[in-house]
Design goal:
The complex is a heterodimer. Chain A is α/β, with parallel strands linked by helices. Chain A is built from 27 helices and 27 strands. The longest helix of chain A has 18 residues, at 124-141. The radius of gyration of chain A is 25 Å and the shape is globular. By secondary structure, chain B is of the alpha+beta class. Chain B is built from 6 helices and 9 strands, in the order βαββαββαββαβααβ. In chain B, a hairpin with a 6-residue loop joins strand 4 (77-79) and strand 5. Chain B is globular. The chains are: A alpha/beta, B alpha+beta. The interface between A and B is large, with 57 and 46 residues. Chain B: It comes from Halapricum hydrolyticum. Chain B: This is 4Fe-4S dicluster domain-containing protein.
Chain lengths: 762, 198
């Protein structure tokens, strides 16, 4: 595959003839720039939508004037967009900025196909025919099992991508979020407590430990920060933020604990030590509903706060205070780890140790604790209703069987995100299909770029030119959320004991030659002779059939935006036990055979344990050459998707750190003044971040909110991103195949580095 | 009966998410970072690990004694009697920038042709506030200002001064009356309302 630059520079766009450019782009940047006259109001209506910028489906009210969406706000009372019944609905800054996504001049609005090595615009007929031919040839030459399904963020997580590529085409291999986002967190939780979407019951909590999760800035829906603020106001909740970075969560917290990075597991063990020593744990719960308590008790017996203080840099008295505060508030207390821990090579054990605290104090699925959210209802299967038997053509297809890494040797998974390039090199993956995702910014970047070039077939559905779409053979222009119908149901929300559904119709007509996701797969299926599996005219029709199960129509639901459907009580484990190997909450994971074998081989305990970074399995350590630890982080203003392409989102991010006047559109490197001073670095300087493998360059932001010895930036920028100028740095250029967490294969994002000044006028 | 309107802001509730400033940009078609009517500032104090931040959402405060109005040579800027909202009549504006310089917060901004500023969403976009009928409360048919409408944590409010005073603490009201009836802002440990914009 080749690569080419098809992106309009945003700066060029803005600095050129605004009127002409905007006219050519069909008014892409708003009304005032066209005429200066915004008082004349055409036909206006307010319709519902569901925000998909961070995939939290917050209910939207969209103001549409003469067919153009002009304003947005949240739906009052919406389970995701509000704090609950009769509460005001809002949207966050990135949600508010999404009109710029829909009307962006850099959007891909036509299908493209590769011809003679170059991408060119094509009609849908051409593109579908080309894609179908390529897929058939691929299956004949390589077998459909060699087409990787890379799980992105298709609108409303619709089922049609998998229906086409997994069930019909027969591609069994998928790489998803478990190895780019949350594997150590979610897999440890799955084995300990059963999956069921663990997430805090924020609004009812009295003690919140945000552990490597910046909930006030990186929320999945407006209900989260609103719930934390409600907990503070209504329950006088204590909030503790454990994070080497001063975040907005730290700002709102009663305590900011800027822990030595990657030592979270030691802190958690010491807290367990205190809670057991003080007999503050939930004896009845532990006795009746858990497994492995004795192993846990033994593991923490000598893990005193003084022991942990040496490792974590957290004062022993403070450790004792937090442990006692947390256990005393339980069960209305929650310790919730997220990417801060999941990004660590020793993150599995660190997460297990934190999860163990929740089991110890018996807060699982109790009010204000860590809720095991579930819908409490099911939607209908439209294929079953239509009497359509969907084949499972992915079954019995050969898949790679690797044993390079522990997670591969013991049957946990064979291909993780960072291992895709190796599978391509070995000939086990020859192509991939991508939907709304940008893998080269999620780890092992350079090898991923090479792998994309080496693949025989790359198909993507997306909206912007980035490292994948520029290298693709077929690019289908996906419609933005405002142009598509939407349906989603769930549990986690401001309605603590309710399941809900939310839906919306397309708010505006399709932009350019874009198509809704359903149509992309339906048309491709028809081209391949599988039209019978897509008999519905639209996604809305499909969802209408799904809603039969709860006696609602799609139109009825879209009119009201959301509906509360079911009651889901607390303590669901009392009815049938935990959804684990043994029906119990497991402190000790000896019950999970794959993990028990893996732990035995690695010399690890199956019980909670402290696993320090060791330059072997659990993370590389800093030294004289690379004395600073680098990682990447999230901020509120940018989502994990396309926000780097949105001027308003990037501007809000820059304003967040007061660097908006630096004539620089990229991400900034947060560095403590002590570390910066030693290197002659000041805010606004361009700096090189160099690891043993590679280097990146970006602008420095000297910040008291960064722990000395630790530097960080937000990911998603740089030359492979959807940012029109490719500004800033792709942090994952520093990441290589070996940077994986050994239990789940998750990309580990901590890298020892040195930072040096390469330019600046300060 | 007409009554002066103002903003009420509680930094203790603000989470610094910038939804207010982006909502203002969207409703009022602010496209250029130099021409934003509302900004969010993050004021840091102390050294690691005793570092703390306070967030301040700031726009035109529709001052009781508006310095921008006083320096405008053409009378384009008006502190309206009916609702106290300070507007720019862009037909009269000669783009001399005096208002922007006179304002301690730099609230009036240049939109490429004329000066523009927050009009408390009397209308939408630059030039849409001047000459509009008096501000109505949302329940009487008026719009909720975009920034207020999208404040995630109810940190920002707007309304007649008497209503905003009811929401505010005595300390905030006292500051407001001492401070030329600008924004009503709750004090925090880190931020003194009198130093906003310094």
């Amino acid at each position: 595959m080749g690569s080419q630059d098809l992106t309009v520079s945003r700066r060029t766009f803005l600095k050129g003839s605004a009127a002409g450019a905007i006219g050519a782009a069909a008014g892409c940047l708003g009304r005032s720039a066209e005429s200066g006259d915004v008082t004349s109001q055409g036909e206006r209506s307010v319709v519902h939508g569901n925000c998909w910028i961070c995939r939290a489906e917050c209910g939207q009210e969209i103001t549409v004037e003469d067919g153009r969406a002009i304003d947005l706000t949240g739906v009052d009372g919406h389970p995701k967009a509000s704090a609950g019944p009769d509460r005001e609905g809002t949207l966050c800054s990135k949600g508010m900025a999404q009109l710029e996504k829909t009307y962006n001049p850099n959007r891909i609005t036509q299908p493209h196909i590769r011809e003679d090595g170059e991408l060119r615009a094509a009609s849908w007929e051409e593109a579908l025919s080309y894609a179908a031919d390529e897929l058939e040839t691929f299956a004949e030459e390589h077998g459909s099992e060699k087409l990787l399904r890379y799980q992105g963020y298709p609108l409303a997580k619709h089922p049609w991508h998998d229906l086409f590529f997994k069930n019909l085409y027969g591609a069994p291999l998928k790489v998803g979020r478990k190895t780019t986002c949350h594997g150590p967190f979610s897999t440890s939780w799955e084995w300990m407590s059963g999956y069921g979407r663990e997430w805090p019951d924020w609004q009812n909590s009295e003690y919140i430990i945000a552990w490597g999760r910046n909930v006030m800035e990186c929320f999945r829906g407006q209900w989260e920060p609103k719930g934390v603020m409600d907990a503070k106001e209504n329950n006088d909740a204590t909030v503790v933020a454990i994070d080497p970075r001063y975040t907005k969560t730290a700002q709102k917290a009663d305590k900011w604990i800027p822990i030595e990075p990657r030592t979270d597991g030691a802190l958690a063990l010491a807290m367990g030590h205190v809670i057991i020593e003080e007999e503050l744990y939930d004896e009845a719960f532990v006795e009746e509903w858990t497994h492995g308590f004795e192993a846990y008790r033994e593991a923490v017996a000598d893990k005193t706060p003084e022991w942990a203080a040496e490792i974590t840099g957290v004062d022993a008295g403070e450790i004792r205070e937090i442990a006692i505060g947390f256990a005393t508030a339980a069960p209305s207390a929650v310790a919730f780890p997220w990417t801060g821990l999941a990004y660590q090579a020793n993150g599995f054990k660190n997460c297990q140790n934190v999860h163990a605290l929740n089991g110890l104090v018996g807060n699982i699925d109790r009010p204000g604790g860590t809720r095991q959210w579930s819908k409490g209802f099911s939607l209908a299967d439209p294929h079953e209703k239509q009497g359509i038997d969907v084949p499972a053509n992915y079954e019995d297809k050969p898949t790679p069987d690797y044993d390079d890494y522990p997670f591969q040797k013991h049957g946990i998974r064979d291909v993780s995100h960072n291992l895709v390039p190796k599978a391509v090199e070995r000939g086990d993956i020859k192509g991939f299909v991508n939907n709304w995702s940008s893998p080269p910014k999620s780890g092992n970047t350079d090898e991923w770029l090479q792998a994309l070039d080496d693949m025989d077939l790359v198909i993507t559905v997306d909206a912007f030119w980035d490292a994948v779409s520029k290298r693709a053979d077929v690019v289908f222009p996906g419609a933005s959320q405002l142009e598509q119908p939407f349906l989603k149901g769930g549990g986690d929300s401001s309605y603590s004991t309710s399941g809900w559904v939310t839906a919306s119709r397309p708010a505006i007509d399709l932009i350019g030659d874009c198509k809704p996701d359903y149509q992309v797969y339906k048309l491709l299926a028809e081209e391949m002779g599988w039209g019978e599996y897509f008999p519905w005219e639209s996604g809305a029709e499909y969802w209408d059939e799904q809603l039969d199960a709860i006696d609602m129509s799609f139109d009825e639901l879209a009119d009201q935006s959301y509906a509360i459907v079911s009651e889901v009580g607390y303590e669901q484990w009392k009815d049938g036990g935990f959804d684990t190997e043994n029906g119990l909450f497991n402190f000790d994971l000896d019950v999970k055979d794959e993990y028990a074998e893996l732990a035995a081989e690695m010399g690890a305990s199956t019980a909670p344990e402290w696993q320090p970074p060791d330059d072997k399995h659990y993370g590389e350590t800093t030294d004289d050459d690379y004395p600073l630890l680098f990682t990447d982080v999230f901020v509120e203003q940018l989502s994990r998707g396309h926000c780097q392409a949105l001027e308003r989102s990037v501007a809000a991010y820059q304003e967040r750190y007061d660097v908006e006047d630096w004539d620089y559109d990229g991400n900034v490197l947060h560095i403590n003044p002590v570390d910066a001073g030693e290197r002659g670095i000041r805010t606004g300087d361009m700096v090189r971040v160099e690891s043993a493998d590679d280097s990146i360059e970006l602008m420095a932001h000297v910040y008291e909110g960064a722990r000395p010895g630790w530097v960080a930036t937000v990911n998603g920028f740089g030359e492979t991103s959807s940012h029109p100028d490719g500004a800033g740095a792709n942090s994952m250029k520093l990441n290589k195949e070996r940077h994986v967490e050994p239990v789940t294969g998750m990309t580990a994002r901590n890298h020892p580095v040195e930072v040096s000044r390469v330019g600046g006028e300060n | 009966m007409s009554e002066e309107w103002t903003f009420y802001f509680d930094p203790n509730s603000c989470i610094g998410c910038h939804a207010c400033s982006v909502a203002c940009d969207v409703r009022n078609d602010r496209e250029n970072a130099d021409d934003n009517w509302r900004t969010v500032k993050h004021e840091g104090t102390g050294e690691f690990p005793d570092y703390e931040e306070t967030t301040v959402s700031i726009s035109c405060m529709h001052c009781g004694n508006a310095p921008c109005e006083k320096v405008c040579p053409t009378g384009a800027i008006t502190k309206r009697d009916a609702d106290g909202i300070v507007t720019v009549d862009q037909d009269k504006c000669i783009s001399c920038h005096y208002c922007g310089w006179a304002c301690p917060y730099g609230a009036p901004t240049f939109d490429g042709e004329k000066m523009s500023k927050c009009h408390l969403c009397l209308g939408e976009g630059a030039g849409d506030g001047a000459g509009k009928p008096p501000r109505e409360r949302p329940k009487a048919g008026g719009t909720t200002p975009a920034c207020v409408d999208n404040c995630v944590t109810d940190a920002l409010h707007a309304g007649p001064v008497s209503e905003m005073m009811e929401l505010a603490s005595d300390a905030a009201v006292r500051k407001f009356t001492q401070n030329d009836r600008q924004l009503i802002v709750e004090p925090t440990e880190e931020v003194d309302p009198e130093t906003l914009g310094d």
